[in-house]
Specification:
By secondary structure, the protein is α/β, with parallel strands linked by helices. 32% of the residues lie in helices and 25% in strands. It folds into 2 domains: 155 residues, NAD(P)-binding Rossmann-like Domain (Rossmann fold); 201 residues, Dihydrodipicolinate Reductase, domain 2 (2-Layer Sandwich), CATH 3.30.360.
């Protein structure tokens, strides 16, 4: 058995998502387990270099986790032949330029979504990576959540019969930043720097619906700017110019209708922050981040509408939990491991920059639908 090291440039990991999910729970977790086992018996050990703008934050993050490599220079990192993967978790508006530079340097590309602020740029990145012959992928973490894995298992088994509809609820109350600190960075609420929940979440719903239920064929979306003023990280009021809620309806292959509400202005009264219900002729399922429950048609109660008497049915009692049946690791770590294997062993990895561009396409169409107040078809991506 040989231990192979692979250098990874990790840009933007001083942010919440980059630190927690990508650095600590993915790359450092792989290191702590002794590396990633490869086919043939070898082990791959990630060697990250932290990249960002703040020397203070980078040094503190590196020291906190026993790392020695960090830099504030993208050019210096790209010149190092030992660092073969470039990962980007910056804010959306700064991603494209850095990814282009990494492609020119011959680095394999793995990045957060949205991959770009617009479809033209997203497709440009995909075409450049394809022409350069580098490996490339986009984070599509929700596909690796236990709840979505179980839901996909149900779809593939034919549990639902003919799927009729999908209803989703995502979100929570993000504090305005005055009397309690906001849980999300202020740039999320500034349209001019790529903020907005439509740009953020419709990228997720594209790959979730495409890969778990059926391909998306059309969209109608209504955005909203419910809270037009918030307070930033320095305690200063600012104009929240971006949409903070989105109410979207999608038509999928087979005539399936999907409705998903996304909101940073909703107080949660459900089991999880994200819940997706699928109804079919033979059964229904409700999936969250971790759990998934089903109700088959033979177990479906027969309610009668009568508001004049107390409800006699416990509707929650008729649902059965889907078991894990196998280990369910952190979703981000699971996809990181697949991408690392793809780079080193040429194993399949379908979640490419072109797949990421599909999410940007749906977000653009969602914004256009809101502006024009109409349904829009989702065309195939150009070559």
């Amino acid at each position: 058995m040989a231990v192979k090291t692979i250098g990874i440039i990790m840009n933007g990991v001083t942010g919440r998502m980059g630190t927690n999910q990508h650095l600590i729970r993915s790359i450092l977790a792989i290191r702590e387990q002794g590396g990633l086992p490869l086919p043939g018996g070898d082990v791959l050990l990630p060697d990250p270099i932290l990249l960002g703008r703040s020397e203070h934050k980078l040094r503190a993050l590196a020291e906190a986790h026993g790392l020695t490599r960090w830099s504030t220079s993208l050019d210096d990192c790209l010149r190092n032949p030992g660092d073969t993967i470039y990962f980007d978790a910056q804010i959306t508006g700064e991603r494209a330029e850095a990814v282009r530079a990494a492609i020119r340097a011959g680095k394999h590309i793995y990045c957060e979504k949205p991959v770009a602020a617009d479809l033209h740029t997203a497709l440009d990145l995909a075409r450049r990576a394809e022409a350069a012959g580098v490996r490339h992928g986009v984070v599509q973490d929700k596909l690796f959540l236990p709840g979505m894995i179980k839901l996909r298992r149900l779809v593939e088994s034919g549990f639902f019969g003919r799927i009729l509809s999908v209803r989703g609820e995502f979100g929570y109350w993000v504090f305005e930043g005055d009397w309690q600190a906001a849980q999300r960075p202020s740039w999320n609420y500034r349209q001019e720097v790529g903020g907005g929940i439509i740009v953020d979440m419709l990228c997720h719903w594209r790959y979730v619906l495409d890969n778990v239920i059926a391909p998306v064929r059309s969209v109608m979306c209504r955005g909203a700017n419910h809270i037009p003023q918030r307070v930033d990280e320095q305690g200063q009021p600012y104009a929240a110019t971006a949409d903070d809620a989105a109410y979207a309806t999608f038509e999928l292959d087979g005539g399936i209708v999907a409705q998903i509400n996304s909101s940073w202005c909703v107080r949660v009264y459900r089991d999880e922050l994200f819940v997706l219900q699928v109804d079919g002729t033979h059964g229904s399922a409700v999936a969250g981040l971790r759990d998934c429950k089903t109700q088959h048609r033979v177990n479906t109660p027969k309610p009668v509408w009568n508001p004049d008497v107390p409800n006699p049915i416990d509707f929650y009692a008729g649902w059965q939990a889907v078991p894990d049946n196998r280990p369910m690791p952190n979703a981000f770590k699971a996809q990181w491991e697949l991408f690392l294997q793809h780079v080193v062993c040429d194993t399949p990895f379908p979640w490419t920059l072109r797949e990421g561009a599909k999410g940007v396409q749906l977000a653009e169409l969602g914004l256009q639908s809101w502006g024009e107040r109409r349904w829009l078809d989702v065309p195939d991506l150009p070559a």
